[in-house]
Design a protein that fits this description.
Elements (H helix, E strand, L loop, with lengths): L20 H28 L8 H4 L8 H27 L6 H23 L2 H8 L8 H5 L3 H39 L3 E3 L5 H16 L9 E3 L3 H9 L11
Antiparallel strand pairs: 1-2
Length: 251
């Protein structure tokens, strides 16, 4: 029986709305690219006109500086980095370069870990939610309604909301990972192979893999008896050193 790794069971070439994982990764990269571009424009406009996004102490409910120049520059640098990562993922999925998708995949893992830590914090310290709500400005929408909710129910609602977000983020991570595996496997299967000696196992396995790829809809795995093509110089030298066939003698 052939052993299959547990993580290979979740491998699929299709994602949401029955589109291909490449299409889903391209759409996801473009979506993140638009969001970070909008955030960058807001930060640049706030840096150019600080009074437009200035909040007084009474509006914030205490002595708190909303955003200084140092934090603004850091936020702009992060937005530029995110735009670069999203553009790399979109280009890598479109041009089928698997290495270009890795930074975006690492960002997704980091974002998923941060949201998981938030869920653990809410679960371990449920009173921190009430403290955070009390620190909100007095004119914050629905602040009194949120404070009147039972603390246990409020924690359960927030945990349910975070769980839905984590499930959705996990699905997007699997989509990008499957796209990386698809592109990586497709690039490795495009290598020309030949069979050494009189071994015909590679030919039969290659034919079987092609038939399986046509029926099952996935890329064939490379054969164990297949090797790369020899260099051109070695092939020409070996061909030139072969002895010519014996002369034909008529009966």
């Amino acid at each position: 029986m052939k052993m299959v790794a547990p993580w290979t069971r979740f491998y699929s070439n299709s994602c949401c709305l029955c589109c291909h994982v490449r299409t889903g990764t391209i759409l996801l990269g473009v979506w993140y690219l638009i969001i970070n571009a909008v955030v960058l424009l807001i930060l640049l406009s706030a840096l150019a006109d600080p009074d437009q996004y200035h909040f007084s102490s009474s509006e914030l409910g205490g002595d708190f500086e909303f955003m200084d120049d140092a934090n603004m520059c850091i936020a702009i640098a992060i937005s530029l980095l995110m735009i670069l990562i999203c553009a790399m993922a979109t280009y890598g999925a479109y041009k089928q370069h698997a290495a270009w998708i890795i930074p975006f995949f690492c960002y997704q893992i980091f974002d998923f870990a941060l949201n998981t830590l938030v869920a653990v914090t809410v679960l371990v310290y449920p009173n921190s939610i009430q403290e955070y709500i009390r620190q909100l400005p007095p004119d914050f929408p629905y602040k009194d309604d949120i404070m009147s909710v039972n603390p246990t129910c409020l924690v359960l609602i927030i945990l349910l909301f975070i769980s839905i977000i984590l499930t959705f983020k996990g699905y997007l991570i699997s989509c990008v990972w499957n796209c990386y595996r698809y592109i990586n496997g497709r690039n490795s299967s495009d290598v020309l192979v030949y069979v050494t000696g009189n071994d015909t196992t590679g030919v039969s396995s290659s034919a079987d893999s092609e038939v399986c790829s046509g029926v099952c809809g996935h890329d064939p795995a490379p054969s164990a008896s297949s090797v790369l093509l020899p260099p051109y110089d070695d092939a020409t030298v070996n061909g030139a050193t072969k002895e010519p066939p014996p002369p034909y003698v008529s009966a």
